[in-house]
Amino acid sequence: MTEQPPASAAKPAGSATTTQRLVLWIAVLASFVAFLDGTIVNVALPAISDELGGGITTQQWVVDAYLITLGALILVAGSVSDAYGRVLVLRIGLIGFGVASLAIAAAPTAEFLIVARAVQGAAGAFLVPSSLALITSNFAGAAQSRAIGIWTAMTTSAMIVGPLIGGLLVDLASWRLAFLINVVPIGVTLALLARGDFRDTRRPDASIDWLGAALCTLGLGGMVFALIEQPNLGWSSPAIWLPMVLGAVLFVLFIVRQRTVRSPILPLDLFRVRNFWTGNVATAFIYGALALNGMVVVVYLQEGAGLSATLAGLASLPTTVLLILLSSRVGGLSGRFGPRFFMTVGPITMGIGALLLLTVGTDFSYWWQVLPSMIVMGLGLALTVAPLTSAILGAIGPERSGIASAVNNAVARVAGLIAIALVATIVGGTLDLDGFHRAAIVTAALMIVGGVASFLGIRNPARDTAHDAD
Prior knowledge:
- The protein is mainly alpha-helical.
- It has helices at residues 18-40, 45-52, 55-84, 86-105, 110-124, 128-138, 141-172, 177-180, 183-196, 210-233, 238-258, 274-303, 309-314, 317-337, 340-355, 366-394, 401-421, 423-427, 433-457, 465-469.
- Keywords: Membrane, Transmembrane, Transmembrane helix.
- InterPro entries: MFS, MFS_dom, MFS_trans_sf.
């Protein structure tokens, strides 16, 4: 896309050009498919293992194969996005994601499905950084915050409504359709890209550190593999400690290389910016907690409380509604008054919501034991996500927004992956009522730490009085 001075800088706040509206829709749809697929699979796991076999091992790897490649490759995708153009990277990611979705829906064996999920995660790594970079390159000031708020409401809601959609398809049709629904938004997004006649801006000196990419991918992959399989094999097994040690060594070599290579995929100087590194610390705690809470609640409501897949998905609907209703408005307020207050109060509010799950007992009642938590969590989430994204990307110049977005998304995905890998340890081996309560306490603690980190580290940027007047 040709990157010109954002039109919002010359237009009244709240108005947008046709190109800006098209960019926003493309960004939303491209990210939507990645976020939707990352969560829709949870409620389909029992049906997948029933048909293809493999039990809990198959269920674990169906989720984690996607997250490993997504988390490990998203840094590479961000660097490629900045170097070779956001539109090109988006097209590659969308096509790859669509092909992988079709392969998953037709998977004859569990092994084929797991490999296809890994390919799908790799394609997904190209979607989110490029879509956010399109927004930061075409919007400025308070208009950018509002655009990110809309993007947040739509894409983050996909992460929450995923279990609902998956539940309906599992109960009424087939788990395979849960993956085929990705094809529709992918087709629409590709059509919008063609309609817009966008042109990519490419740096003539662009280069990618492929060796660094390999070190990062293998390093993260080895450590994550060890965390996932450790409950099954134990730390004394060479199949666990050897990948952990080798992965850690490779990742350290990756960090060392990034200090000297000409075109790093992880520019370490980004972490000299206070709001960037502090925001990523908060991201790690908050998104780790969200992943833990999302998985444990959906699974417990089915296995512990006896709800159907559809009803378990419906449980999160109040959170979704509040996020959609409030996120854009909160994004605008954050653009005017700064993100620090919202990034502090939001996670702490979510922590309180998680603690409300301690009221869940053997005599189960959704209305009195789960619904209050979903409402409070929705309020906290709406206060948090758009200001968090704005604070991190707003701290870095538009010319590096792709890699900045990639780093933040990598932190979020890896934090979620680690939290899910540690579920068995957190709940004590079994997701019974006591384990559910332990998970709620850990979720609350992580959220509160994320809020405190934001309060101590985030600094509000200077207010734009011109936009305030508008």
